[in-house]
Amino acid sequence: MKNSPNADLSASFALKTGLALTISMAFLTSAANAQTLKLRVADSFPVGHYVAKYATKYWMSEVTRLTNQGVEFEYYPAEQLGKARDMLSLVQTGVADVAYVAPAYISDKLPLSAVVELPFGFASSCIGTKAYWRMATDGGVLVKRELAPLGVRVLFALMLPPNQVVLAKARFDGIKSLEGMKIRTSGGAKELMLRKLKAVPIQVAAPELHEAMSRGTIDGMLIPLSSLPPYELEKLSKVATMGENFGSFIITYAISEARWKTLPEKVQKAMIEAGKDTTERACRLVEEDDFQIMEKVKTAGMTLVKLSPNDKQLVNAVSLSVGREWAEALDKRGKPGTEVLRAFEDLLK
Length: 349
What we know:
The protein folds into 2 domains: about 35-160 and about 250-290, Bacterial extracellular solute-binding protein, family 7 (D-Maltodextrin-Binding Protein, domain 2); about 165-245 and about 290-349, D-Maltodextrin-Binding Protein, domain 2 (3-Layer(aba) Sandwich). About 50% of the residues lie in helices and about 15% in strands. The chain has helices at about 5-35, 50-65, 85-95, 125-135, 140-150, 190-195, 210-215, 255-260, 265-300, 310-330, 335-349, and strands at about 35-40, 70-75, 100, 150-160, 165, 180-185, 200-205, 220-225, 240, 250-255, 305. Helix 4 runs antiparallel to helix 9 (about 265-300).
């Protein structure tokens, strides 16, 4: 039985309509994909590191959410795009859109930012983080004096808990035990502090610490206790101080101003909002983890000790002199060290 002319017309119309809808949907999908902004994020932290969990991945997810999936990220952890000390260059050259920049690793380029890593009396991550954030955003002194001239802007930041002395040897008889020891430092003013304590400072990036400790290249390190488990350093360490402040370490993620200016306004707003939220969240979570970390390193066999009153007095005196000398040295180089130091001290009050 032959189809009627009307049936043929209906079938033809349905076919064309279906084809048109398919093409239309494909076009819309293609257009949506074309509008999705893809950005590369790079850092040096191992997979599973708490910084990635509390800050990096959270910030990326928040930006994606706030832009209604308008931004997608390609994340390159564990130095996949470059060494920790090369991250600033990766951002400036466009190899990465956003990267982890540690002032301590590039003190020649970010000397003023190291002010927040001086061995001050504050004992929590959030106190230091909030002070740095105010200096490094919204026209703060570090923006004017250092970040803007380098053509970068900070998107979010985290001050690690204060450094402790961590040693491979089981015996610790106070600060005098450090004399002659090769102690790892992340650089900056902490090197000056170690020299004043008659130790031998050796600059080693965190990803290289396990090897340095294993081979005996260093006898110990200045590092937050929270940074031991991610690198399995508690297995190589025997004793550590607790509740002290031998300086700290600021983590920042930055983007170049050139790249920033190419971003749509809604993306910029999302990054600013996500950055503030991430900064506040990360330091809070790090502080909440402190007790658990202490229990974990003790379970691994480490002994945690507190300094004697005399040692505390010595460390405090050394800390004050380090701050002054750090500022004066920068002043002599034409850098506003004293200005930045005073700004940081005022924010800690």
